[in-house]
Please model this.
Amino acid sequence: MREKPAKTSYPVPATYINAQSAITGLRGRNLFSTLRNVALQGLKRPAYTARHALALGSQLGKVMLGDTPHQPHPQDTRFSDPTWTHNPLYRRGLQAYLSCQHQVREWIAHSGLSEDDRSRAQFIFALLNDALSPTNTLINPLAVKELFNTGGTSVLKGMSHMLDDFMHNNGLPSQTTKDAFEIGRTLAMTPARWCSATNCWS
Model:
């Protein structure tokens, strides 16, 4: 049974970042609890879910006819390549992706989930949407251009990095190389000092 927060307490944070779970950004129990609540909400309100599914189908139909109902966020540089705007196939693919993203957000925002679960669900599905972005595939126009520019070696290099992450970085994408920082040169250090209520140690 879910405990009710005290009236004077602050809302439970939607995200809980730690070194062991940098991808999900959530405690495991919160992650599965939120996904379970989202699934139950879909079963409890089938008409509500069906209405959003029909709205998505209608939007996708318009997208296939050339409509562009959504625009990427201005600060989202993943779709800055003009191919996403000028090429009909890429433009439709982008609009289909944004339409799905929009309907999922709307479904969660107006569902009967608690405020905490809505915040967590938005965060989880934002991560899933980002992971499923068409820019993360080989059809990304920048990846296609790099493929031709490097004669295919860019794909081999990427596969090598992915394998190295699986073997040496717990499956998480590396943000930098391990030799990028050197103590005293590119990384500063000071002696640690630990204090309790009565004593301090260096």
Observations:
- The helical segments are 28-44, 46-64, 83-86, 88-109, 115-131, 141-149, 153-168.
- Residues 141-173 form one domain.
